[in-house]
Amino acid sequence: MLRIKHTAIKTKGIVPRYLKVTGSPDRRTDLILIRNFQTSIAKFSATSRYYPNEPSKPLVKTESIPGPLSKREISELDKVFDARPAYFVADYEKSLGNYIADVDGNLYLDLYAQIASIALGYNNPSLIKTAKSQEMIRALVDRPALANFPSKDLTNSLRKLLKFAPKGQDQVWPALSGADANELAFKAGFMFRQSQERGYDTEFSKEENDSVMNNQAPGSPQLSVLSFRRAFHGRLFASGSSTNSKPLHKLDFPAFDWPHAEYPTYKFPLEENEAANRAEDDRCLKQVEELIVTWKNPVAALIIEPIQSEGGDNHASKYFLQSLRDITLKHNVVYIIDEVQTGVGATGKFWCHEYADIQPSVDLVTFSKKFQSAGYFFHDPKFIPNKPYRQFNTWCGEPARLLIAGAIGDEIINEGLLEQVQRVGRHLFSKLEQLQKQYPDKLQSLRGKDRGTFIAWDLPTGKQRDLLLNILKLNGCNVGGCSTRTVRLRPSLTFEEKHADIFVDVLTKSMKQL
Amino acid sequence: MLRIKHTAIKTKGIVPRYLKVTGSPDRRTDLILIRNFQTSIAKFSATSRYYPNEPSKPLVKTESIPGPLSKREISELDKVFDARPAYFVADYEKSLGNYIADVDGNLYLDLYAQIASIALGYNNPSLIKTAKSQEMIRALVDRPALANFPSKDLTNSLRKLLKFAPKGQDQVWPALSGADANELAFKAGFMFRQSQERGYDTEFSKEENDSVMNNQAPGSPQLSVLSFRRAFHGRLFASGSSTNSKPLHKLDFPAFDWPHAEYPTYKFPLEENEAANRAEDDRCLKQVEELIVTWKNPVAALIIEPIQSEGGDNHASKYFLQSLRDITLKHNVVYIIDEVQTGVGATGKFWCHEYADIQPSVDLVTFSKKFQSAGYFFHDPKFIPNKPYRQFNTWCGEPARLLIAGAIGDEIINEGLLEQVQRVGRHLFSKLEQLQKQYPDKLQSLRGKDRGTFIAWDLPTGKQRDLLLNILKLNGCNVGGCSTRTVRLRPSLTFEEKHADIFVDVLTKSMKQL
């Protein structure tokens, strides 16, 4: 018989989450029991155990936001940096868990989380431990040119990342940001495409070697990436050419002449509009295939977000994402899923496109944001170029952020945070459905059901949306918008029912004030 | 009268470099005296004080490189990552100062320094201190969306960076890599150009807003960036279009139709070939102006490295770089200096283009590598776009690396490392000049005189160059190549006369073996 003892000794305010199991001669059973026991605990208090001293509610002391101290610091910052987008100046020392503090002493419940980039709340004890590790210090002070002089830690670091890769993906190429990850994936896609045309082991021709030095075909072929209307894949020049969110993101920059197909626009709630939404899928799929067949520059790759995030939280159905696999296979187009904003747990699965169970696996999956590290996953070794140094740069990723990514992945799995996100998401969504009955006009097209806390809705106008976001801040909730009139919720995975309740109370109050 | 006492207490093997000055009633005088005293010490032993336990010489135990343990680890790494470019697997724990260790126990004097990216040697005590700081831990665990929710540390962090900015530059935009920095600088250049055409405060037209969503002019104007033959500005799509180093860096990727002018090819030694080199400058300048006037797509910006590094350590004269300022002003072209590889001290000045004393200041200066952080400096506030969110992304740089950059800059100044690099560079160059007399064929076009340790030469063929680099490794020196047949020296700024002597001995031995 086993004796299970929860060693609840407080160490610097953090309750250790490991259980001591004694008495069993079978160590394997022990471990399973620990795991089960942990998961059942996780169901009730994963976050509270991270943050026993988390504030119990928001607190706004200033009459306007940014408050006077933030304003002063923003105007100082503005002398050396374009500080116009600053909402307030944060005090990360005083931020904890799901709460972000500012220099005026305001404390907001954070449902924006650095544009969906904080996975485990502020000052997470497990990340602090990683930040203090010897591996981290080495990564910071002796940053290698990873591919030329890899450290002895690198294989482990990448294997750890791959533990969390989407099903079917078993290799990774690191990058530095979502835009970078997407552009490196484009490069992988272009090389793959040309290697199929040319033959993987065929040498480059003299004509290719000569023309490429003048940026001309055939060495610099006029290939294209197909993306979607309202897509966001980054703001560099190639990622920017595939981005289609807002004119302001692209104006005045040269762009590649690449096509955009329409992304389905569904009617909500989904379960009441199945036929109409299927017809919408088919209309858009037809357009995708037509563009692939007719576009002036051959379409080498297709990139899509499983939920378009900057573009307004537009969802794509399982049928749509699977049909794109069929079309891309038929026309020899590389299929890239952009999980930069949707990935790493916020939808209740580690990767959002897992909901679509795409078969066979897509070719490349890009990640960034909540993983802090960035890059793309793949499985077909033919995505490794025929020669070294074709996919290459000095740093090939950021070793410090690879360590953070590994720690984030471990916490998500060990703490059962995916289950928590699903559970809290259901709780939050049903409360919003209730509120929608009261304010149907101000809570239009509520979406994200069964997609964890990745929830959004529309207001009638952009002006009202912006006003609501301001009122929410003044009432203590930091929330972001996307597209022109959408509110998007992007809390950390540490967001619990109690936080959802506070948010819905604040939202209800704010709706009245709107 | 002052009593100056050097507190030479050993603390964990590191001799503190601060001096205690007592007895003066005038604290200001004290500080000046400390600084003078420190500089005079720096002249003799800045590096030895960092690394009192640095190995005294290289040690190669294995018969081939990579050694058997490196080989095994590379083949493991290759299962998850393209490890073909790996020279060996490094053991950064055992690397110190100017020496890099590998997992086979080999110890190399490092004159490559992670493709010119390690400023202060391995495991630098001052960087370790920064890596352990509370600010660093916050930056790692609570990475902000810098422009939306700047931390209270950000203004200081950026001001610190700006302390080291090239003369005339007083604002900065952070990025994540050299390629990223260059592309963000291109964006700044394109917006500047169009704002001059349109009027800084003029609203975008409906036609612009519509066309940009289809990647078409006028919203996506067909503007170009002029760069140079053999240039290297990165490997993303726009930076890649300006790069002209090798076909392999560019093949199979779509490129913008941007022009490349010829970069001057000088005869060495420079002092014996002044007239011929001036004629070469004029020939290339004429081509630059012709391309600006005649290129099919208007040239909005010009980007140049003051020494083309990947492209073969090609130097540009003061006259050439100043004349480009005159041409860019005449034709309203934004002048960008790429200091990614040349910046941060290796040439003996903090920024290499300071040697050219360009008047008026260039418009944008990009940096990365030895600063670990990346970005561009500028001075004209008109390079801040007319609206917020035009130059923007989630992270806007890496706060952890900004802290490292500040620490690197401080050490370079406080330790007198620029003077050290100049002094050691002169010592090394004169020894190489001696060796050149013995091996004129294997030490062709020796260059980098009075440019610190930023020294290079050519071998007759690429094959011989590669062979020499291998022999050098087997004899204990890690050295890199560039272009097709060039050897480039890129040690850390902590490289001293004694290291130069070891290198020249190893090189002499290796030349005999070649």
Give the topology, please.
Two copies of one chain form a homodimer.
Chain A: E1 3-6, E2 19-22, H1 27-50, H2 68-77, E3 99-101, E4 107-110, H3 113-116, H4 125-131, H5 134-141, H6 154-163, E5 171-175, H7 178-198, H8 206-212, E6 224-228, H9 237-242, E7 260-261, H10 274-294, E8 299-304, E9 307-308, E10 314-315, H11 318-330, E11 334-338, E12 364-367, E13 374-378, H12 399-414, H13 417-438, E14 444-447, E15 455-458, H14 462-474, E16 477-478, E17 480-482, E18 486-489, H15 497-513
Parallel strand pairs in A: 4-16, 6-7, 6-8, 8-11, 11-12
Antiparallel strand pairs in A: 1-2, 3-4, 5-13, 9-10, 12-13, 14-15, 15-18, 17-18
Helix pairs in contact in A: 4-12, 6-12, 10-11, 13-15
Please tell me about this protein's structure.
2 copies of one chain form a homodimer. With 514 residues, the first copy, chain A, is α/β, with parallel strands linked by helices. The N terminus of chain A is likely disordered. In chain A, helix 4 packs antiparallel against helix 12. Chain A has 3 domains: 48 residues, no CATH class; 151 residues, Aspartate Aminotransferase, domain 1, CATH 3.90.1150; 280 residues, Type I PLP-dependent aspartate aminotransferase-like (Major domain) (Aspartate Aminotransferase, domain 2), CATH 3.40.640.10. In chain A, strand 14 and strand 15 form a beta hairpin. The N and C termini of chain A lie far apart (61 Å). The longest helix of chain A has 24 residues. Chain A has a 7-stranded mixed sheet, with helices on both faces. A 4-stranded antiparallel sheet of chain A has the order 14-15-18-17, covered by helices on one side. A 3-stranded mixed sheet of chain A has the order 3-4-16. Chain A is globular, with a radius of gyration of 24 Å.
